[in-house]
């Protein structure tokens, strides 16, 4: 049921807030709802316990943008993602049960933190899955 699962590398010097990562997918089967999740890979250069992200979704009959937060560590500073050593992975659902028309869609994900160049984010990804049959 996975339509897309891909990652884009960020700039080694830091992920600039003006440089959103774009992902494209195509919907052919309109008998399903679709769910979108953001993937992140964070390395030891990241300084915060969370990250705020903006996303824009554009396609046939839909155009919207929203903000969401990914909590990266608990109150003690322990990373909540999966992985060991220098690279921790996260997956955060941000839009579920979308009823989409057939066609091509674009999602742009950008960081929305105070730092213009955000260090420590290695990769940003998008996962699109069929989320359940529409009856």
Any key phrases for this structure?
135 residues, mainly beta, four-stranded antiparallel beta sheet
Q: How would you characterize the largest beta sheet?
A: 4 strands, antiparallel
Distance between the termini: 17 Å
Low-confidence stretches: none
Question: Strand tally, please?
Answer: 10
Estimate the global geometry from the Cα principal axes: globular
What is the overall pLDDT average? Answer: 95
**What is the topology, as strand order, of the major beta sheet?**
1-10-4-7
Number of helices: 0
Please tell me about this protein's structure.
- It is globular and about 45 Å long.
- 22% of the residues are buried.
- The strands form 3 sheets. A 4-stranded antiparallel β-sheet has the order 1-10-4-7, with no helix packed on it.
- Helices cover 0% and strands 63% of the residues.
- A hairpin with a 2-residue loop joins strand 5 and strand 6.
- With 135 residues, it is mostly beta strands.
Task: Describe what is shown at a glance.
The chain is mostly beta strands. It is built from no helices and 10 strands.
Q: What is this structure's SSE topology?
A:
Layout: E1 2-9, E2 15-16, E3 21-27, E4 32-43, E5 50-59, E6 62-71, E7 87-98, E8 103-111, E9 117-118, E10 121-133
Antiparallel strand pairs: 1-10, 2-9, 3-8, 4-7, 4-10, 5-6, 5-8
